[in-house]
């Protein structure tokens, strides 16, 4: 007789996942207010810099609660700031090119996701800190590069 044994998974795993997802939902609810208050470019810059710093700081998390808090804030800020990227980039191009710009931006996003998934196991083989440095470093570099984007607040949409 074959008996299927399921892995012993703690309920905390599911609760933590719900907490991280709920923090993302709250962040998206306040994203519009934040864009109006500080501007899309500033949200992009500071969001990427903050999330990059939090991504690297996850390595030094000492317990489950601090990991939950840091990862919740990290994922929420990273998601909102990368979502604002399309809005900032679209304001730079005329209407006739916007669909092409969105397609190219999404293509590079998917290529980045593919490259990250391919490199993550390689970095895990090297050691524990390398994946955190990769994720945080990419976000910090994107935040630094966002400084050179022109201000689109007073630009007319053509």
Automatic annotation (TrEMBL):
Entry GO terms, CC: membrane
InterPro entries for this protein: MFS_dom, MFS_trans_sf
Subcellular location: Membrane
Membrane topology designation: Multi-pass membrane protein
Swiss-Prot/TrEMBL keywords: Membrane, Transmembrane, Transmembrane helix, Transport
Record-level Gene Ontology MF annotations: transmembrane transporter activity
Parts of the chain that traverse the membrane: 13-31, 43-62, 68-93, 100-123, 129-149
Ranges where the Major facilitator superfamily (MFS) profile domain occurs: 1-154
SUPFAM superfamilies tied to this protein: MFS general substrate transporter
Superkingdom, taxonomy of origin: Eukaryota
Gene3D superfamilies per record: MFS general substrate transporter like domains (1.20.1250.20)
Protein name per the record: Major facilitator superfamily (MFS) profile domain-containing protein
Gene source species: Bactrocera latifrons
